[in-house]
Fold this sequence. Notes:
Blueprint: E1 2-7, H1 14-25, E2 27-31, E3 58-59, H2 72-88, E4 92-96, H3 100-107, H4 117-130, H5 132-142, H6 144-149, H7 155-168, E5 184-189, H8 194-210, E6 217-220, H9 235-263, E7 267-272, H10 276-279, H11 285-305, E8 310-317, H12 323-329, H13 336-343, H14 352-363, E9 372-375, H15 380-383, H16 395-416
Amino acid sequence: MTVIAVVGPTATGKTALSLALAHALDGEVVNADSMQLYRGMDVGTAKLRPDEREGVAHHVLDIWDVTQPASVAEYQRLARAAIDDVSARGRVALLVGGSGLYVRAVLEEFEFPGTDPDLRADLEADLAAHGPAALHARLRDRDPVAAARILPTNGRRIVRALEVIAITGGPFTAELPDPTPHYDAVQIGVDRDTADLDERIEQRVDAMWAAGRPATHLINNAAGNFISRTQDLSSRAFHAIADIVFHGTFQTTQAVGKRWIAAKSGGAVVSIIVTWVRTGAPFVVPSAMSKAGIDAMTKSLAIEWGRYGIRLNAIAPGTIPTEGMLARLRPGEADPMADQAKRNPMGRVGTAEDIGNLAAFLLGPIWINGETIALDGGQWLTGGSGFQDYLDWGDAEWAAARERIRARNDADKAQRG
């Protein structure tokens, strides 16, 4: 039995290729897009309606309510059961999607320890009562290696680590395992050049409107950050950031905005940028330039499109950590979260809830237009971009940082398949 996996970025043609392969190979599709697992998440994910599937059976779609947290372990169980069923009937299983961790969880030997509902409830009660920092300290006592790899604000993952340690009596594995195949598999990566991808995004947005499923709000959250001395940047590295952050954000905003104008429907756009647009920032010049362009786009289109009932605002977050972000912007620091919190006037870093609450407010029917709101506890007022400490680095420190960032990028590429 050989599984065929079709992977790649949004709008590159994975769906069309999977349907063609299914017809040619007598195959059935098993979904590996994490957002298409949710019922009702149809428009932004370009989920095929039953009448668009060309008679090809699709599995592992619409399995969770949007209020249910995603579970890679549960997805793995359902996807492998679907693949085994397809293969048992003599057909070819096509694993299709852009969620790299989910693809790896199916194709490779990933083991997920069980759960204990009572223990989980107790830990979640502790989290609610005392906060993630207290539980992270507990984790540091029981498994220092896992604690070093899990952000102190990631309460859900800290709870899971403590649960696994209690159930198994062993350490929690906080990193992905080395690849060991579970199935024989052929992986097909799909990609396109920028101009072609722009046209396909335009077509995808057009199809949303044609299908009677127009967008009413847009959140631009294109991110591409890593530290580098500007003299060390290659042209390819600069364009990688500019294409993702600047070009992609404009292309999507224009595609949606012009349809709102034609339909006279109005709409709201929120773009996530950075406080560096106000201060400048050494060692992150491509990102700072690209985000500054989005800031200018927000102000400019607020004037131009306001008469059409379209509002554009932006959020400039401070440190709201993710593990990938810290690995690229603070490579090698033992406890970057604590260091950033010490520098903040409010004594903490931000959370996903902070940015979610503000984004929801800005997407509502409010009389705010063309604003970029700093969400950083006032830190940008105290010292600018926050990377001045790198001015003291020499060649050796920059070489070490490049190696750490390259290792993180390689790990992320492996997760994406």
